[in-house]
Amino acid sequence: MFSASAIPGTALQGTKISDPIASSKGGVEIREFLPEDADGLETLDRDFITQAVPRNWDDWADEPHRVLVAEQSGRIVGGVHYALVGRGEAWIEGLRVAASMRRRGVGGRLLDAAIVASEGYGAVRTRCAIPAGDEACAAVMRRAGFGAEARFEVLVAPAAPAPTAPGIRVADPRDLAALQAWLHSQPWPGVSPLVGLGWRFRGLNPQMLGGAAREERLWVTDAQKGVVAFLRCGADRVVWILAAADAASTLPLLSAAQSDLAEPGRVAVFVPSESEAVRLLLDAGYRRDPWVPAGLEVLARPQSAR
Rounded to whole angstroms, how far apart are CA atoms 288 and 291? Predict the structure, then answer.
């Protein structure tokens, strides 16, 4: 997502860039975030945080990330986050530039540096997301080689602990191969199935399903014609898979996330915009996340786009 963040990122654990990202042009240096940059980045973010970043972005983040900054004469004038989210997959978010430095190419340079750094870790496909209808962000991404891959709705509802609906059970790890095959046979958007873990999208893989099954965050219908998987994010349960062979199974599947709550909280669902589940959830009282009222555009850039 291209938005501000009030929190400078944490480093990727156990990794090292062989060629540090550092470039200077027009008196602006692009480099890795340093601890002494924290105050400057926080000052920059004050101009953006209330309007540009989801309030729950940090709560829902599922992996550490790195931060690049733009510095001019000792002042932080821009920043961007990048993270590895899967084998060969990277995610870029949080691109922001001080108002006084816009239209000078600083944002494009930050974006290019994040792409180079991600590819240095082996990424062959880099993704980001923007609020649907944000033409300014879309134009920046097109210039960097990104193109539309999928569109999702982010739907949220308050929830209290409640029993799981009849016919919904925890997935048996022995069923994962069949479940993976069934999910890949469904009309998911994009070249491969995409799932959103805490605002960051990546291709579905067996390791994700296995981890969710072991932690009892993956539930299925008795007939294995429906599946739901979610993250535990404090008092929120964030659903990253909701797939059902029939509409009647959609809301019962979500009861699994609600039953996992220990106290009143929220259930949030990332669902493809073209899915029939969007209408069902809205009718059931879910509401669009205010940060993306028109939906979320997932954009992708293959390595060959350089």
Answer: 8
* Four-CA torsion 100, 106, 108, 114, nearest 10 degrees: -120
Q: Which residue has the tokens 């999910």?
A: 183
Cβ atoms of 242 and 253 within 8 Å: the answer is yes
pLDDT in tens, 36-78: 999 998 888 887 655 556 778 778 877 788 999 999 999 999 9
* Contacts of residue 255, Cβ cutoff 8 Å, sequence gap at least 6: 162, 163, 164, 165, 168
Helices (H), the chain: 38-45, 49-52, 57-60, 106-120, 135-143, 176-184, 206-214, 250-259, 277-283
208 and 115 in a common domain: no
SS3 52: helix
Domain match, 113 and 182 both? no
Are 169 and 219 in contact, with CB atoms under 8 Å apart? yes
CB 159 within 8 A of CB 237: yes
- Whether 131 is covered by a domain: the verdict is no
The string of pLDDT tens digits covering residues 172-218 is 988 888 888 888 776 655 435 789 888 999 998 888 999 999 999 99
Please report, for the domain that includes residue 107, its CATH number.
Answer: 3.40.630.30
Segment 248-292, tens digit of pLDDT: 899 999 999 999 999 999 999 999 998 889 999 999 999 999 989
Q: What is the domain extent for residue 110?
A: 22-123
Residue (of 118, 132, 5, 123) closest to 61 by Cα position: 5
Q: Which two tokens stand for residue 261?
A: 């709550």
3-state helix vs strand vs coil in the chain, percent to 5: 30, 35, 35
Q: For the chain, how big is the Rg over CA atoms in Å?
A: 20
Does any domain span residue 130? no
Do 79 and 191 lie in a common domain?
no
249 token code pair: 């199974």
Does residue 166 sit in the same domain as residue 105? no
Do the beta carbons of residue 217 and residue 231 sit within 8 Å? yes
